[in-house]
Amino acid sequence: MTALLEVRDLRVAFGAAAAVDGVSFTVAPGETLGLVGESGCGKSTTALALMRLLHGAVTGGSAHFDGRDLLALDRPAMRGVRGAEIAMIFQDPGTALHPLIRVGEQVTEAIRAHQAVSAAVARARALDLFRQVGIATPELRLRAYPHQLSGGMCQRVMIAAAIACSPRLLLADEPTTALDVTVQAQILELLQTISRATGMAVILITHDLGVVAGMADRVAVMYAGRIVEMAPTAALFAAPAHPYTRGLLGAVPRLDQGWDDELPIIPGSVATAIAASGCRFAPRCPRADRSCRATPPLAPVAEGHLAACWHSG
Amino acid sequence: MLRYLGGRIGQSLLLLLGVSVIGFALMHLAPGGPLAVYTLNPTVTAQDIARVKHEFGLDQPVHVQYVKWAFGLLTGNWGYSFFGGRPVGGIVLERLPATLELMGSSLALALIIGIASGIVAAVRRNTVIDYATTTLAMLALSLPTFWFGLLGIYVFAQTLGWLPAGGMASTGGGGVPDRLRHLLLPMLVLGFVLVAQWSRYTRSAMLEILSQDYIRTAEAKGLRPMRVLLGHGLRAALVPLVTLAGLQLPLLVGGALVTETVFSWPGMGLLFVNALGTRDYPVLMAILMVGALVVVVGNLLADIAVAVIDPRIRLTHV
Ligand SMILES: Nc1ncnc2c1ncn2[C@@H]1O[C@H](COP(=O)(O)OP(=O)(O)O)[C@@H](O)[C@H]1O
Ligand SMILES: [Mg+2]
């Protein structure tokens, strides 16, 4: 099976600091890949780099989508990909929608950016999309402004706009983090339904392993700009190979911070962290020893299961 | 919305009342008066002065004068000029078109160049273009209007002889090109500071807006850069910019007064300065009220426009 998206050695730097440092992964057509890691580990940066929406950052590596390297496309071609072939939704639907534009128009403009259809046709399509994402009384809601809708409803609008052109890949950056718990489950279910019905692949970004558990086919765990473990979801939960993943799962008692608490920040400045070779998790790792001074490669520990740890064998 | 509007109109009327009372009081309490020049004239007797004072009603208490004047204003009788005796309404209104031409053209210039340069400076921030517009704007904002007026006259009228130094048209009329030649320098001088304000304000508003999440959403949809910049960015900037338009009106009115004086532009500002010299109370009060009305109505329109643009305001002030 050929990959829909093949990211190889993606690097993103804001000034001197590398936010993403050599990330490689693939996404198969229709697959949902969970991208997990605590806040600041580079998940959003990875997604925005794929969309080429990072202004003022230096990007390296390659990201082949359907044979074309997204990072090498010229701007008009990239604009043709955005929204049409790869769509993105964001963490806070309250601020991701334009406050002064009716939500219906925010969906129709996504359609009309890529397809030469009349306003009436676009409106009819938006109406359909609103029904599809479960918005009640869609005729009325089309004319609403974001501030008149709840957070969950706004995220449904965002999803409607994102799937308007039937993209083959959806980048969902913490799509439920800002929502109430009950609404979170509904939105996740909606994403799963759409993905199954349309064969749309999803990269589901979250800091919450619970979110990926029921959603993702595979999970990639990021730490400090690198992927430290990648495995089919069931395998990851059954046998986490990297101490960081085990920490996230709460399987290691010595790592006494719970998942909801902020893990301690790596001692030393960013500059020393980058200059220092070796495993980036070592300063916080209960199993760290001398061997961790060399960078562990992302290596197979089982069928389809990769981990970057000297002690995971 | 209607109640909100009603409240704002009520506020505006109170403001106009306040301006009229304070303006009237200051004018009459200031030393001197329209007849001050005659007290030094040996051929004018004290009886003459008393007689004229009585004729103009200036011998009555100030509050009585005010009530009479205000009643006249509301019933369409704005009084008569102390000098020449013409009805004030006519004197002021015939000057209005010249002032509106100057203010309108300067404002149009400011809107077009100011907003465009502000957007460019925001998009190309920290480049040569940004620094150049910033420097120019700071220059415009830090030097007084009359200084630019005098400089303009010196360079373009006196030294180069390209443009007339003042007035609205050459003697004996002249066509549209002649009028435009007369308009150009005053328009630029009055417009310069306005352009600077709009440019700075647009830049900072756009800078803030372009970093918002919804701009990234618009880009993620694959919209064209111009559509993102104008349809989403500038659209959001309209709220602060329209508010600025309202707040800027006093500056525009004040700047027009100075510019008209420097360029002998026959508008209300020049009339005001001349009337100030002769203490022609009825004319001064009429211009003061017209100026205040322009500012108040302009602010009211700006408030309405903001409510039209921003549904959050429109739909909460029901
Ligand atoms: N625009 C930016 N400029 C500078 N640094 C940034 C920018 N965006 C993100 N970063 C840095 O990059 C790192 C990764 O951030 P991000 O991708 O947002 O993390 P996540 O989405 O996993 O929480 C963080 O250290 C953050 O401070
Ligand atoms: Mg993030």
Shape of chain A: globular
Indicate the mean pLDDT of chain B.
Answer: 88
Query: What sequence of helices (H) and strands (E) makes up the elements of chain A?
Result: EEEHEEHEHHHHHEHEHEEHHHEE
Question: Mind telling me the C-alpha Rg of chain A?
Answer: 20 Å
Keyword list:
heterodimer; A: 313 residues; alpha/beta; Rossmann fold; 2 domains; eight-stranded mixed β-sheet; four-stranded antiparallel β-sheet; 12 helices; 33% helix; 23% strand; B: 318 residues; mainly alpha; MetI-like fold; 13 helices; 78% helix; 0% strand; binds adenosine-5'-diphosphate; binds magnesium ion
Would you kindly provide a written description of the structure presented here, covering whatever features stand out?
Chain A is of the alpha/beta class and 313 residues long. Helices cover 33% and strands 23% of the residues of chain A. An eight-stranded mixed beta sheet of chain A has the order 6-7-8-3-9-10-12-11, with helices on both faces. A four-stranded antiparallel beta sheet of chain A has the order 2-1-4-5. In chain A, strand 9 and strand 10 form a beta hairpin. The longest helix of chain A has 18 residues, at 181-198. The two termini of chain A are 28 Å apart. The model of chain A is unreliable at 251-275 (pLDDT under 50). The model of chain B has no long low-confidence stretch (mean pLDDT 88). Chain B has a domain at 92-148 and 187-317: MetI-like (MetI-like fold). The longest helix of chain B has 38 residues, at 225-262. Chain B is built from 13 helices and no strands. Chain B has helices at 2-29, 36-39, 46-56, 62-74, 88-123, 128-142, 145-159, 176-210, 213-220, 225-262, 268-278, 281-309, 311-316. Chain B has 318 residues and is mostly helical. At the A-B interface, helix 2 of A face helix 9, helix 10 and helix 13 of B. The structure holds adenosine-5'-diphosphate and magnesium ion. Residues 14, 19, 37, 39-45 of chain A line the site of adenosine-5'-diphosphate. The site of adenosine-5'-diphosphate has 10 residues of chain A, from helix 1.
